[in-house]
Amino acid sequence: MKRIIFTGKGGVGKTTILSTLVRLLARDGYRVLAIDCDPSMNLAMSLGIPISEVVSLAGDRTQLQERLGSNMMDHDDHDKEHSVEDLDKFIVDAADGVKLIVMGTIPFGGAGCLCGPISLVKLLVNYLSSGIKENDFIFVDSQAGVEIFGRGLASEFDMSFVITEPTPKSLEVAKHGLKLAHDLGVKKQIAVVNKVEVDEDLSSAAKYLNGNADMILSVGFDKDVVSADKKGALLLDSAPDASSLKDILKIKTCMLGDA
Prior knowledge:
The protein has one domain (2-258): P-loop containing nucleotide triphosphate hydrolases (Rossmann fold, 3-Layer(aba) Sandwich), CATH 3.40.50. 43% of the residues lie in helices and 17% in strands. It contains 11 helices and 8 strands. The protein is globular, with a radius of gyration of 18 Å. It starts with a strand and ends with a helix.
């Protein structure tokens, strides 16, 4: 089982690429779980699930945290099976058989930070990685920026995908994210330069990242992505021949080659 995190500056297309990639993997028969750690909670909609149908982890944090706490290893098989049953209410069946869990968001002004829910997701990923409920891939869609690395969520993950636009501001966030992923022992750091319009976009981005990534991939600018987003439609369904899908398929091929 592989654990993979997606990060990047806000608006770079992180969730669009992730949601498309996990669907393509599920269509190939892989068992895929996607965990939305972005308080904006856009991944559910990007996988065809209305937010109203989601039970978030943050809404039931205390009880679940007790079950997934440090004493989990001392529980017998019956307790572990019961814990899996408790977890089922948070798992939603999304497009193409992808399983989805949503961390949740800040419920009201002054409610504090997301440290607690992020810590819960860290416990959850470790628990699921123990083999109690088998998946081929667990994907984490992080909040915008690099704060989630400061919480140690991606420690010892297999891959970190940092999505960036070919702009200095976005690339600076990506460069820092790649460093933090390396600090946490993520086995492979992959930069994906999105919305590429000319060859110079990719070459200048590679120069800016200056060897911080183990691999640099690209996704071309695609008007079909913009159109689908405006309509609230899923790219794979609304534009199955979109040019960006060919690039995302290349990302899938590269990822599986290293999986």
